[in-house]
Write a structure and sequence with these properties.
The complex is a heterodimer of chains A (49) and B (235). Chain A is mostly helical and 49 residues long. Chain A is built from one helix and no strands. In chain B, helix 2 packs across helix 5, helix 3 runs antiparallel to helix 7 and helix 4 runs antiparallel to helix 6. The chains are: A mainly alpha (49), B mainly alpha (235). Chains A and B meet through helix 1 of A and helix 1, helix 2, helix 3 and helix 7 of B.
Chain lengths: 49, 235
């Protein structure tokens, strides 16, 4: 019975790691996309001027 | 091109998540239990269905880290640097999964979470720590040839640990079990083997997806830097 706890803790940790990584990936992707579109916009404006 | 990379990466990551969930369900509901005489902790043995695939995925990531580091060091190859970055990021995730689940199983099976005299456990821990160092250090440094040289040198040095980690249970088996499949493997019940191979397939999808997404992010970072330099009047 005791090792059922170990089983539950191990999978909770591993699922937590995958979930945290998915969340961080999404956050970094959104951040990088917004930085890219911002800098491209400024660059285009500079070229127009 | 880079949008295709991102779409491919996200698709593989999502498919990997679905396949890993199916593996987990099969591991709990379909694969048979080991008997009490074979193992001290038969329930905790089911940790194996994600522990082994994540360890294999991390070993592949560490190998890719070596190839990328070598390509940068030797040829100043841009794809080599991107491979180095993507592989280091993947090595941390899968290494952490194996390095956290292993001691929890060890505590149930052996009564001790970490054996400092077992070569496999310690070299694997070192590899994961090395990958984490590469990720954290790179993110805190401005990109440049000197920084890349340093990180690639660490990546090359770290690779010495990969064959050592792989062979450790064959040469000096203490606590960590030896191979269960392949030459010299202990063999598995067919349902257990099917579940494990599905787990390996799932984690290969996750590894490929994560590396493609990271590759896209490095490429985009470099694009941003190029535009910034152009605006500043540089190259």
């Amino acid at each position: 019975m005791g090792d059922m706890v170990n089983l539950a803790v191990a999978y909770t940790l591993m699922i937590g790691l995958i979930a945290a990584w998915s969340w961080m990936l999404g956050k970094r992707l959104l951040d990088i996309q917004s930085r890219l579109s911002m800098i491209e916009e400024v660059s285009d404006q500079n070229e127009d001027e | 091109m880079s949008t295709r990379l991102l779409k491919g990466g996200l698709t593989l990551w999502f498919l990997g998540l679905v396949a890993a969930t199916v593996t987990l369900l099969l591991g709990f509901a379909w694969a048979p239990s080991v008997d009490n005489e074979t193992m001290n902790a038969p329930a905790a043995q089911r940790i194996f269905y994600w522990h082994v695939p994540s360890a294999w995925a991390s070993m592949l990531a560490f190998t890719a880290l070596f190839i990328g580091s070598l390509a940068w060091f030797w040829k100043r190859s841009e794809w080599g640097w991107r491979l180095h970055v993507s592989a280091a990021e993947a090595g941390v995730l899968f290494g952490l999964m194996a390095v956290t689940s292993g001691p929890i199983w060890g505590q149930a099976e052996w009564g001790v979470a970490w054996d400092w005299t077992d070569v496999r456990i310690n070299t694997f821990g070192l590899l994961t720590a090395l990958s984490a160092y590469l990720v954290v250090a790179r993110r805190s440094q401005p990109d440049g040839d000197d920084a890349r040289d340093t990180f690639s040198a660490v990546g090359l040095f770290g690779f010495a640990l990969v064959p050592l980690t792989y062979m450790a249970t064959r040469w000096w088996e203490r606590r960590h079990p030896g191979p269960v499949v392949g030459p010299g493997g202990g063999g598995l019940e067919p349902q257990m083997a099917t579940t494990m191979w599905l787990g390996v397939f799932s984690f290969m999808l996750l590894l490929a997806g994560l590396m493609l997404i990271e590759w896209f992010m490095v490429t985009t970072e470099q694009r941003i830097t190029r535009i910034q330099n152009k605006m500043d009047g540089g190259e």
